[in-house]
């Protein structure tokens, strides 16, 4: 194996491992609130987008629409969201958070901020900025390699 490839390979493994550990910590917290990680993500996305269709939500949380339908059913039964008719498309439903959902998202934000702070312990501000810049460049490079590049160009 070429020496440069050997030096670069650990970056992918580290990115994967860090993402896996972040996901695991969030899963643990979601379980503590009686939710799955997918439900946790759906609540956050509904909060950010306020009125979101099931199809858009599925895309945002990287799940299929049928899975999202079940997620929304469970969140609605718990009183965390409400669904209502789309004003311009009677076939589509939109979702929004209830007061209980807003409160839970507030807790999730606190958990996320604490996890973020704890994950960066020991890094200087310069190191943090270098990590952000490096990961942003890697993401941009990967997006430009795939079909997402065409989608992002069309959106501009």
From TrEMBL:
InterPro entries: HTH_MarR-typ, MarR/SlyA-like, WH-like_DNA-bd_sf, WH_DNA-bd_sf. This is MarR family transcriptional regulator. It holds the Pfam family MarR. SUPFAM superfamilies: Winged helix' DNA-binding domain. Residues 8-140 form the HTH marR-type domain. Keywords: DNA-binding, Transcription, Transcription regulation.
